[in-house]
Every structure is written in C-alpha cells, then in structure tokens.
Amino acid sequence: MARDNIFVGLEIGTSKICAVVAEARSDGTLKVVGVGSVPARGVRKGEIVDFETAKRCVHDAIVDAEEKSDVEISEVYLGITGSHIRSFNNRGVVVLEEGREEIDEQDLDDVRTNAREVSLPMEDCILHTIIQHYYVDGQDGVLNPVGLLGKKLEADFHIVYGIRTRIQNAIRCVKELELEPADVIINSLATAQAVLEKNQKQLGAIVIDIGGGTTDFVVYVDGAVKQSGVLSIGGDHITNDISIGLKIPSARAEKLKVDEGNVTLGTAFPGETILLKDETGFAGREIEREPLNQIIHERLREALEIVKRQIEADQNLHYVGAGVFITGGCSQIRGLEHLASDIFGMPVTMAHALPMAGVTSAFENPQFSTALGLVKYAHLVQIDRPASGGLIRNAFQKIKGIFRN
Amino acid sequence: MVQLNRQYDRANNSGEPIHVKVVGVGGAGSNILDRVMLDGIEAAELVAINTDVQSLTASVAAHKVQLGRNLTRGLGSGGDPELGYAAAEEATDDIRSVLQGGTVVFLCAGLGGGTGSGAGPLVAQVAKEENALVLAFAAVPFSFEGRRRCAQAEESLTRLRAVCDAVVCFENDRMAEITLPRMGIHEAFAAADLTVSQSIRSVAALLQRPGLLHIGFDDVCAVLRNGDARALFGYGEADGENRAHDALAKALKSPLMNRGALLENAFHAIVHICGGPNITLGEVQIIMEELNRHINDQTQLFMGIGIETRMGNRLSVSVLSSLGNGLGKPIAQFRQRAVYPVEPLPQPNVKPEPWKPAAVSELPPKAAAQEQAGAIGYAPERGEEELMLSSTQSETHKPAQTRPPAKLDAKSQTGSAKKVEAKQEILQFEPVSRGRFEKSEPTIIDGQDLDIPTFLRKNVRIR
Ligand SMILES: Nc1nc2c(ncn2[C@@H]2O[C@H](COP(=O)(O)OP(=O)(O)OP(=O)(O)O)[C@@H](O)[C@H]2O)c(=O)[nH]1
Ligand SMILES: Nc1ncnc2c1ncn2[C@@H]1O[C@H](COP(=O)(O)OP(=O)(O)OP(=O)(O)O)[C@@H](O)[C@H]1O
Ligand SMILES: [Mg+2]
Ligand SMILES: [Mg+2]
User: Fold this and answer.
1) Is the complex ipTM more than 0.90?
2) Which of A191, A226, A398, B209 would staple A373 via disulfide (CB 3.0–4.6 Å)?
3) What distance in Å separates residue B70's CA from the closest CA in chain A?
4) CA distances from A390 to A3, A160, A395, A396, A401 (A)
5) Ligand 2, residues A214, A264, A367, A368: which to mutate, most atoms within 8 A of Cβ?
6) Mean pLDDT over all residues of chain A?
7) CATH: 3.30.1330.20, 3.90.870.40, 3.20.20.80, 3.30.700.20. Which one for B231-336?
8) What is the pTM of this model?
C-alpha cells in the first residue's frame, strides 16, 4: 500500500544502508512505522564506489523496510554526502518595478533565482538554496515578506552544491531499483531536523554526524542554516589507524574500537591490557589499552579540530548558543563528549533523533539520525507549503537539473 | 624493440585458476607480508612462517606456521641460519600442509638473520615439491649491518637460486636511499617493505588478472630467472592529461631504477600497465615509446595491460626487470654511508664457524625446477574487468577524481602538476597503505593526506 501520507528516508551510508518509513498523522506528528537497515558494501566515504554491489544492498534495505512497515515503497527522500559537496552564502536582490509596492510570491522566487546566479564550475549543480533571512527595504527580521509593502526585497541564502556526476550515482542507484527519488537532501541538513529542537536552532547550534566514512556538519545561527560541510573522515579511519598502529586485521580493529575504545587519555592503568584471542591457535595477544585509546584520540581530536577551524574561519563559532550536538555511529565512542567540549569550549550533547511515535528503538540509535531526519525534512517541507505543490515541483526540477546534459 | 607477448591468445583458454600464496619467512618476511596485506592483494593466501612466536602472533597473515617448537621454543634463531634451517626441518610437515594447493608461491624474506636465511630455502624446496612455481623476493641487509650478515645473506641467496624458479634480490641500501638521510631505521625498513610489497603485488597482478594483453608464467620467469640478478623495479601512478607519461616517469624514478639508467643493461623487462576502462592505445604507445629510449636493442620487452575499474582515472605503470651477470655480485657492492642517524642494528653473536652449507646437496637441481615451471598450464578466468571495457555505463560511477580544495578562490587553481608530485611521495615512501580507502578519493585537507593515520602524521609515539 502506497499512501500519500507516507515518507521514506534513505541513507546510503558507508557502513550501513538505512531506510526509514514514517507516516504523517492527522495531528501533525510523524510516526515511524518501520526501519530497514543492512550493512553497506560498495560505499566509501559516503559515496558509491561499486555500483552493482551498493545497489544490491540498497535493494535489501528497502525490502527490509517494506517488510518491517508493511508499506510498499515507491518513492524515497535520498540523503547525499561526499567530499565534493560545497556551500556558500549569497544574497539575492529584487527591486519592484515602478508602480508596484506589494511583495508577492513571484518576488520570492525571483530573489532566490537571483541569489543562485553565481558561476559554478560546469561539473557542479546546486542541491539546496536555503533561505536564511529576508530584508525589505533594508529592514531585517522579516519572516514572510509576502504582502508587505516595499521597494526592494533582499534575501540571504545558504547554497549547497556538488559535482553532478557524483550525485547522479546515488540517484541512478535508486532509479534502477524502480524507486522514485522524491528529493535529494544533504545528510547534514536532514540530520539536523532529527536532532535539533526549534529553539536550539534559534539559539544557534552545531550538529556533527560522525559516521563510518564522513563527518557531516551544519551550523544554525538565528534559526537559519549558516554553514554546512562534509569531511571525508569517519569511523573507517579510526579502524584503519588502529589496524596499522597495533598491527591487527581491520575486522579486529573494528571490534576493538567498538568494544573497548575510549578517547580519553590516561584512563587506563599503566600497562593495562586487553586480551585479544587469536583464532589461529597461538597464544592470544595482549593489546595495551593506552595506545589504542591514543590512536582513537588523535584521529577524533583532529577531525573535530578541523570542523572547529572551518566554523571559526566563517566566524560562526561565537553565535552558537545551544552548543554542539554530535550524532552518528562514532558518537558512541566513550569519552567523546569530554573531548569535544574541550575542543569547542561549549556544552556538547551526544545526540540521537528526538523521539517520535512508533518504533522507539530507531531514534535511540544515533546511526539512524540521518534517515530519520530525512523523513522529518520531507514532512516539514510538506507542512510549510501544503497546497501550492511548489516544492514538489522544485524537487522534480532539481532532480531533472542534476541529470541535465 | 617492442614485442607483444605470445600469451595473448592463452588468456582465452579456460583452465584451472591459479592459487597464489604469499609466504613470509622470518621477521622481515613477516613485515613485508603485513605490508602486502595492508596494500591489498587480490585472491591470495598469506602465510607467515617464523621461529619467533611474538612476531607470528602480531602478523596479520591468515595462516601461520611456527618453526622449532622444540628447538627454539618460540624465540627467534638469534641470527643463526643453521638453527633456522633445523627449526624449519622440524616443522616440514606443517610447512607442507600450508603450502599445498598453491600454484604460485611468492616467498619473501629478509636475508642475513637466522630464520629467513636458514628456513627460507627449505620452505622454497617444499613448495617446489608441491609443484608450485616459486618466486623468491629477498631483501639483503643494509651495509651497516656488518659483514657477517651480508655473508649469511649471500649464502642463503645461493641456496634460494638453486631451488626457486626465480629470485629477485632487493638491496635494502638502495630501496631506502631516499629515506635514509632523514629517517630512522623503522622508516628505512618500511620503505624497503613497501618496494618489495609493490613488486610482489605487481607480479601477482600480472599473473592473475585477465587483461588486454597477458603475461604468462614463463615470461615472468624468463625475466626474473637471471643468474645472480638484482631487481630493478619501479612503480608509478598518475592521473590527469599526461598520466601515461607521468606514471612512467615516476616508475623510472623509483629507487631501484636509477632513473631508468640501469634498464639499459637488462636483457628482459616486464611492463605492466593498469588503468580504468578509459585507457587508450595512444597511452600505451606513449609508455612503450618512452620506455624504448631506456633499453638497448637486445632487450626483450614484455607488456601486459590490465583493466581495472577501481583505477578510475588513474593509470599505473610497473616495470620489473633484473640486472644480468657481469655487473658483479650485489652483496659485494654495498656503498659506504658516512653518517647514519640512528643506531645500527645490534649485531648477532658472531660465531667463529661460518654457516656450513650442509643441506645444499639435498636441493633439486635448477634444471629440474625449470622444467617443472614450464609444464604448468594455466589460464585465468575472464573477469568482469574485461567486460567493463565495452560497457558504457561504467562512466557513471567511476571513482572520484581529485578536485581543487574548498571554495572557489584562486588558491584552488594552483597547478595540478604539483599535486602529482606530492601524491608520488606518499605512494612510494610513506609506510602507510590506503587499505580500505583504496577505491576512494584521498581525503586531502590543507595539503595533508588524512587517510594516513593521524598518529603517524603527527609523529605521536604510541605506547
Ligand atoms: N625490508 C625489511 N628488511 C628487514 C626488516 N627487518 C629486518 N630486515 C632485514 O632482514 C634481515 C633479517 O632479519 P630478520 O628477518 O629479523 O631475521 P629472521 O629471519 O627473523 O631471523 P632471526 O630473528 O635471526 O631468527 C636483517 O638483517 C635486515 O637486513 C624489515 O622490517 N623490512
Ligand atoms: N558503539 C560504538 N562505538 C564506537 N563506534 C561505533 C559504535 N557503533 C558504531 N560505531 C561506528 O560508527 C560508524 C558507523 O556510523 P554510521 O552508521 O552513522 O555511519 P554511516 O551512516 O554508515 O556512514 P556515513 O554517514 O559516514 O556514510 C562505524 O565506523 C562504526 O564502527
Ligand atoms: Mg551517516
Ligand atoms: Mg626474527
């Protein structure tokens, strides 16, 4: 049964592929009716590197979600990430023609179009043009300028773009499975919808999703998206570092990271060890705790410091009042909260998606924040513009645009 | 003179698949094995063989054989090849069972100590008895390790040559040439491991991968089977417009190549070109023509081309050859280094008696070994690599290309030529693998390759 009030969010993650099925209820809330998730293969750093393999996994995740929710999935809101994704802020301006004084819907479209008129490299295409603030005749604090009297409408936008062919890979993967991509949304934006309350966006907040292959972040200032970014560093790097540093195979390094890892230095007794069993029959190997933690510490400190530096460079750090919200699989590493608040010098929350009705186990797991955020985003967009159908058209245009030439 | 090799039509035959085993003997062998594993090798079984249980336990190999359970009791052989040999003899059955079923055995070891030098030839012999093609990749000691180790290495080399189908000898001195002045002993060894690992991987790829042109066992042996050969090996990888030229230039710059100058003295050379489906005949031509300037008229050139989708827009060139006789013995040619920044390796207790080559007569004569090699028939299965060639959809998911960093400012335009250089440095000399990140675009931020472990880049001493 495909229904209008059903939203499906799909994250093709580096370590797992996850589809969340949610239902919009008449009281305006969302209910999670099923979550399908399978380990990902053929995905590195948030992007598909082995098309057929990844496609098979996406298929399996969709089937899993269909079984769990008893919904036949035909359309998905697709999360996108990758190091090719870039963003900047730009202002659009529209001057009303002589004789007209009231700002209308068309002006909103025009000011957006104006802001998008930047010369991007040929290979790129725009993913989002997110409104930050409107100004009417230089006055800010305007929430909705339609119907206001004025001569000049200006608006600031956060514009996100990426390399067309690399975005196409994920879309094509979905399409080849006979699924319609309803919209493509960058992961960080989606995740923020799942993790942040409205007032936290207003106070200013940083959301960091540390996954298996990428670290996606977004900065909200004054209720608007001020900055977003993707770092292709994730849990895979930690695992790889451990594997090299301790000379153990990756599978063991991964297990060691999850079971024993801790970013806090000096918590192990001197010489404290972990016994690693050797399946080949040799005496088990002792792994020292402190070096393990040190390897993890170095990697995560570095990743967080890079994020901080980028936020500082755009001079947004001082406008963040609600603090840092870290989610994604790697947020579960012990001690990360302390390390992060040490680095950012502000309160840090280890976050998972805010509770919704339905499958509760889903939002307790920070690995599902992005997929849950995707359905929240879809829902919010629908609420924002119920009747016009404008956004649906926009989404359609956007996907067509991605496949242009 | 360019000669397309005759293996070409054989690639179409169907036959038994080849089973590759990479066997590391002794401490150095085990380290090289780890390197091979970290860099990634397709469809090969890794086997670590050692007297030293600590080193065995630390090894990432899937199969492990302990030598000298009774004789050395888990400790190393203390630099005594005789003891190494005896320890191996005691474990002959274990060695045999782990080698069974291998069509090609790559044996790697550092010669000069006890286990690699002593047990290595015996392992090779067992592999031959199991009807494998045996290629040995041996690292010979740094000159600063002292005369005794060098003599032991030479002795062991002689024994290896008597059994193996081919022995490729790597001089630690030369492999580490570029790293030596500024790095410590671990980096020097790591650089050496990397070179040996790259050449093992290239030869394995040559033998295993179905490509446009295929190089066979006998070609590889013809090139490597040379008297007391020293390996010439170069590997380079590049992308961008000039990738063919750039990749070859890098390969020739490799420390074992002497900028291609040494190639002139080689009788045979193998060139393996590997790239994504978009590799062109023009590029192959460029590489072969440029290479022709570095060889003499008599040199036989064997070329193989592999198509691998994971290469994306990158193209790699491996050149493998060996110096024939007439250039003197490799081990006698160590160059003296005036200063060395770290303490030399501890010298083993020098025993008055040199290692008696007692076992030499048991080894099968070389001629027999060669016959066996020639008799092995094989033809690898056609893989999807070849199919990809004609398919157009591969365009869509080709792996990421590098693109200028952040923002659209002027900085991002700073020449792509430079980038190529930087990448090469990392590829050749950093003791680090791309491992899981192999197929993906490197994470470069502020000029640093963040795929390399942070603790290594920041030089944090762990433990
Ligand atoms: N390329 C490389 N060479 C090494 C390494 N470690 C040692 N060597 C070289 O290999 C030679 C043999 O050393 P090992 O492999 O440690 O010795 P072994 O074969 O285990 O023998 P014993 O320890 O004496 O039982 C040394 O003389 C060095 O020249 C390494 O990590 N890489
Ligand atoms: N309890 C845990 N402790 C530490 N790390 C964990 C834990 N659980 C999962 N991880 C790590 O989290 C990562 C996966 O996180 P997540 O599912 O958010 O990533 P993803 O969405 O698949 O990848 P990406 O978004 O980067 O493409 C893996 O590297 C995994 O090792
Ligand atoms: Mg994720
Ligand atoms: Mg040893």
Assistant:
1) yes
2) A191
3) 15
4) 20, 20, 9, 10, 16
5) A367
6) 91
7) 3.30.1330.20
8) 0.57
